[in-house]
């Protein structure tokens, strides 16, 4: 019996059962969701995000996602999802109340230099705050090495494997800290004043070298002032230390990881809308 979901599953029925007692006003499929079938549900009280894993790998990871979110909730100065893990016929899915805000992805190229500088500092601050959480206080399944996650992602989905990249990441994890793992502008929320208020989507999260988050945020296209201000902010917060050579190496690795998964998505899920140029 499969432990994942497809769009042919009765997702509306599962949502209605989960939100029993709420009046559902509308549902909206987020067609850019790569790893899960993502549905935004608006009710008479709140809005919610449901995530239904697309395959067995993401079913396993959505469990980790929920546990990680609930462990770090309140431990940084930014909003993170308060995640509920649910099951339908033994298949895990998650639901959380929508954090009101705007994706930084949608606003990135409309921000003033002053606003970009402030956002860059906030993101660097989040990385440091997350990395300062004591890993010894976390359950074992929350302390999942990012290197192990990325290797399994590769083994299960990629046609051309990234053995050297995985070895480099694993070797960097000598003194790992908590990382988001997929810290890109699409997972960063802004308020109506364009201030960073929250971080979402912790499916990649675990422990690794902090530069994996530093390099991730600049591995996707961003305005050049953002990269300059972000790296300067992180360096300042990290006692004036930043190994740009290592950051750039990890940024290149993220490019390889993204391309491998893009190739998989184009083949396995041609209905998914990928960002332009991918």
Proportion of residues in helical segments? 40-55%
Q: According to CATH, what is the class of the largest domain?
A: Alpha Beta
Number of domains: 2
From the coordinates shown, what is the CATH architecture of the largest domain? Alpha-Beta Complex
Q: Report the strand count.
A: 10
Order of helices and strands: HEEEHEEEHHHHEEEEHHH
CATH names the topology of the largest domain as Aminoglycoside 3'-phosphotransferase, Chain: A, domain 2
* First and last CA, distance: 34 Å
What low-confidence regions span 5 or more consecutive residues with pLDDT below 50? none
Summarize the biggest pleated sheet. 5 strands, antiparallel
What does this structure look like?
This protein has 278 residues and is of the alpha+beta class. It folds into 2 domains: 11-97, Phosphorylase Kinase, domain 1 (2-Layer Sandwich), CATH 3.30.200.20; 102-268, Aminoglycoside phosphotransferase (APH), C-terminal lobe (Aminoglycoside 3'-phosphotransferase, Chain: A, domain 2, Alpha-Beta Complex). The chain has 9 helices and 10 strands. The strands form 3 sheets. Strands 1-2-3-5-4 form a 5-stranded antiparallel sheet, sandwiched between helices. Helix 5 packs parallel to helix 9. The model has no long low-confidence stretch (mean pLDDT 95).
Short description:
This protein is of the alpha+beta class and 278 residues long. The radius of gyration is 18 Å and the shape is globular. The model has no long low-confidence stretch (mean pLDDT 95).
